[in-house]
Amino acid sequence: xVQFTRRALLGAGATLPxxxxxxxxxxxQPIRVVVPWNAGGLADxxxxxxxxxxxxxxxxxxxxxxxxxxxxxxxxxxxxxxxPDGYTLxxxxxxxxxxxPLIYPRLAYNPVTDFTPVTLFAxxxxxxxxxxxxxxxxxxxxxxxxxxxxxxxxxxxxxxxSTSHLAMESLIKKAQLQMLHVPFTGAAxxxxxxxxxxxxxxxxxxxxxxxxxxxxxxxxxxxxxAQRIPLLPETPTMAELGMPVxxxxxxxxxxxxxxxxxxxxxxxxxAAEALKAPAVQNLYxxxxxxxxxxxxxxxxxxxxEDRANWESVLRDLNIQLE
Length: 322
What we know:
By secondary structure, the protein is of the alpha/beta class. It is built from 10 helices and 10 strands. The chain has 2 domains: 21-124 and 249-317, Bordetella uptake gene, domain 1 (D-Maltodextrin-Binding Protein, domain 2, 3-Layer(aba) Sandwich), CATH 3.40.190; 125-223, Periplasmic binding protein-like II (D-Maltodextrin-Binding Protein, domain 2), CATH 3.40.190.10. This is Tripartite tricarboxylate transporter substrate binding protein.
């Protein structure tokens, strides 16, 4: 559950300090950002969008490496064990640093002590959509079809305990539904399954959903954000439809624990400037992703707040994994 406060967000136009003179030589080699999800999902799109705009000011390439698995835990654990020299970062989100610690009792990393916060750089809402030919033009029709076939209507997500999974579980509880969960290893394969008709419904990032809905491949029923979004101005929110579901995610950068604070500040400053680039803003707008920039300490506070919010949601849903 993503909650943004004035204190947590500075906005894409924030001005952040550059590194201390002692670290003026950083970086002296390419910087690797591990994306703990498959290529093609929104997490992958937004980091690949900002990486070129960061490479120029840093004077070194920002290289993206996809390492999916275990709801983002595989790639996240690898970064936690990396050298804290500023050359290996993790693309973090609600799954990796707020949800996983609450649902996996034996998680191989500590989201607080194993990482150095750097910056948030984007957030994005989800929409509820259905496969081609499902036969529900609005939320009421969708709920009626699910209730008529308890346990038979399927929904996709990008993993057990993912924000997509928990958004649908929230709807299931509110509407007193019975549905069958079909988890995938990422948003891209999950959305492919929806388009091909293998699965009936899912909560998907608004940008990718709008792209496939534009071609008539899926039907979007509602937006899981507090307000309607510019990309889909005619699509009502889930709250407007009488089923309030907070379905959003955030994206940020962290390094391993004990990474120098000055390096974290430098990367955060470069990311904040990169978010102003017209190419980045155009890409984010098309993906319904909102640019966000924070200082490292503000990101630390934000993640703690988000984890507390998800703890309340998970307690309500009674979800925990072995």
